[in-house]
Design brief:
Length: about 550
């Protein structure tokens, strides 16, 4: 049995004044990508300079204006990467490059060496402030921990004189979620006083969920408490840096935005230490799904996944929100049926808003339009089969025919196991409806419509069990005339046409017609559909008749 008593409950802030539960997210925050720093430091094989460059280019294309590119004092590769960005003039004027450093003189000195030549830079200093780290890592009192932060701030300030670009200071009370809020406030205020508006840019206080330690409402309370207790809130950018230890990194980010956060640090697809940083893409796509402009250019999620997997050597899970291979796929019959109906309702009504059951966004909006939306296995129903036949191949199966063909597909799935891909479905469709030429095979048909007496004359060549037959008849239309022409040469035939429908396949001069004939064998009572395709609509329907006749004959077995 699990020994849950080894774990004590984390304290919950008592903050009944909270207002965040009644708020809504209204606009995108300032995004800061930490892919090249927190994401990179957590990789089994950190990115090399070329991979970092590819990732940096992607982040620029996605529209990030703040990018933490690394911890340049920590390793030669991070230092070299930064220098390469400068040497190759890779940093656009409207983009701030962010660098992380501990509050240690040699590291701050080296950081300033690395950033020479950058126009806009965020220098990010941090030290750990939680009760646990104060005790077991630093063995220091609160005041001594504050001294580290003040010293770090002073080190940055002292470098301003020898630096040409614009510096913005960011301070993180690292392990904030395990820190008493009044102490976090005290240390931030001390940093702010020491900084004393040393540059024009507002100071960034970044309150990280370095480790997620509680339910998302607790983090929201901590953020709102800080936001409403800062002395000089107007001159502060309140940033959050969520991790995902409890699997609620996205939730705490969204609640932190309700609670007053202005800025979010995170990574694409949630790479980062342990369970990762918050996945910025999910937060952004969630906003998008609510009609809010996420202010990132994220309409091609497949490209992002491809570059991410290559540079980070990580794999995106099939169920990953928005980006996973299966997230716009429905296997089960009732979901497929509902998607099918939802898509048709949207088309018919010309909806202003996207509203399709089970699909919170239109996959096409984020570059997923060429993927099969519905995949078919033994759990699938007629709706899904009809959806694939329509969206992939353009066949709009009549409602009554959907059950018949879905049974064919289900049989294949059960016999062979697993998924029936669209191509296999089409092969089955052709085999069922087009390829069977026994006992009836249409060879030639000539149709003459007599407008005066509203009759149609057909001249028909067909084979019955391989024997060539010529027959002519008059009927009240081509279908009736063909039926009579067949019957007078094959007297045992007793078929009735119950229903007929057609539509065009494709567009323009190359378009064809697809005709569906529902037919009954009056002797056995069996009913089936036949399908015919031709560039000529009458020929399509006659082919459909022959298709249905062969299917009925196969069922009755005594025609052959
Ligand atoms: C939550 C986060 O992700 S924070 C970012 C973490 N990222 C990284 O650490 C990646 C890059 N880091 C490194 O490469 C190395 O840690 C370096 C180069 C920065 C420093 O290396 P080293 O000095 O060899 O080792 P280390 O990091 O263990 O240093 C620990 C010392 O720094 C002190 N320290 C830790 N954090 C800070 C800080 N923010 N400010 C000042 N001193 C600090 C510790 O108290 C400890 O002091 P001690 O030696 O007196 O006990
Ligand atoms: C440096 C800080 C912001 C950090 O990475 C964390 O707390 O996770």
């Amino acid at each position: 049995m699990l020994n849950y008593k080894r774990y004590k409950r984390n304290p919950v802030l008592n903050f009944p004044e909270r207002t965040w539960p009644d708020k809504q997210i209204e606009k995108a925050p300032i995004w800061c990508s930490v892919d090249l720093r927190d994401g990179n430091q957590a990789l089994i094989e950190p990115m090399n300079v070329d991979e970092k460059m590819e990732m940096f280019d992607l982040l620029l294309r996605l529209g990030f204006k703040e990018i933490e590119i690394g911890f340049p004092a920590a390793s030669q590769i991070e230092y070299d990467f930064l220098r390469k960005l400068v040497a190759e003039n890779k940093i656009p004027d409207d983009v701030k490059v962010q660098v992380l450093t501990q509050c240690r003189q040699e590291l701050v000195d080296r950081t300033f060496e690395a950033i020479q030549g950058i126009k806009n830079v965020v220098v990010h200093i941090y030290n750990s402030t939680s009760t646990l780290q104060r005790d077991v890592v630093f063995n220091k009192s609160q005041d001594e921990i504050i001294d580290i932060a003040i010293a770090g701030t002073r080190m940055v300030k002292e470098h301003l004189a020898d630096f040409d670009g614009n510096v913005q200071l960011e301070y993180s009370p690292e392990s904030f979620t395990g820190t008493e809020v009044d102490f976090a406030l005290r240390i931030c205020t001390a940093v702010q006083k020491e900084w004393d508006h040393a540059t024009d840019a507002p100071i960034i206080f970044n309150l990280p969920a370095t480790v997620e330690m509680n339910t998302p409402n607790v983090y929201a309370d901590q953020i709102e408490w800080m936001s409403t207790h800062f002395e000089d809130r107007d001159n502060i950018i309140l940033s959050v840096h969520p991790h995902n230890d409890r699997g609620t990194g996205v939730a705490i980010t969204e609640l932190a935005l309700l609670a007053g956060a202005d800025r979010v640090e995170g990574t694409l697809l949630g790479n980062g230490e342990r369970t990762g940083n918050v996945d910025i893409l999910t937060v952004a796509y969630n906003m998008f799904s609510q009609g809010i402009n996420p202010e990132l250019e994220i309409e091609d999620v497949k490209e992002i996944v491809e570059i991410y997997e290559r540079c980070c050597k990580m794999h995106v899970d099939m169920r990953h929100p928005y980006a996973g291979k299966l997230v716009f796929t429905a296997f089960s019959g009732s979901h497929q049926d509902a998607i099918n109906k939802g898509v048709h309702a949207m088309q018919e009504r010309g909806n202003e808003y996207w509203e399709v059951p089970y699909l919170p966004i239109d996959p096409a909006d984020i570059g997923r339009k060429y993927e099969p939306v519905v995949r078919i296995n033994s759990q699938s129903g007629k709706g899904g089969v009809a959806f694939v036949m329509d969206t992939v191949y353009g066949y709009k199966l009549p409602k009554k025919m959907q059950r018949e063909f879905a049974d064919v597909i289900q049989y294949i799935s059960e016999q062979e196991g697993g998924e029936v891909e669209p191509q296999k479905m089409m092969e089955a469709f052709k085999k069922e409806y087009f390829e069977n030429k026994m006992p009836f095979e249409l060879v030639f048909v000539d149709i003459d419509d007599n407008m005066a007496n509203d009759e149609t004359h057909v001249s028909l060549d067909f084979k019955y069990n391989g024997k060539a037959i010529h027959s002519e008849a008059d009927g009240n239309g081509p279908i009736d005339a063909v039926k009579l022409a067949v019957k007078q040469c094959v007297p045992q035939v007793d078929f009735s046409v119950l229903d007929y429908s057609e539509h065009s396949l494709g567009k323009g001069s190359g378009a064809k017609a697809a005709a569906y004939i529902e037919m009954r064998d009056n002797r056995s009572g069996n009913i089936t559909f036949g399908v015919g395709v031709s560039s000529n609509i009458t020929r399509a329907s006659i082919r459909g008749m022959f298709s249905a006749m062969n299917r009925l004959a196969k069922k009755a077995k005594d025609y052959v």
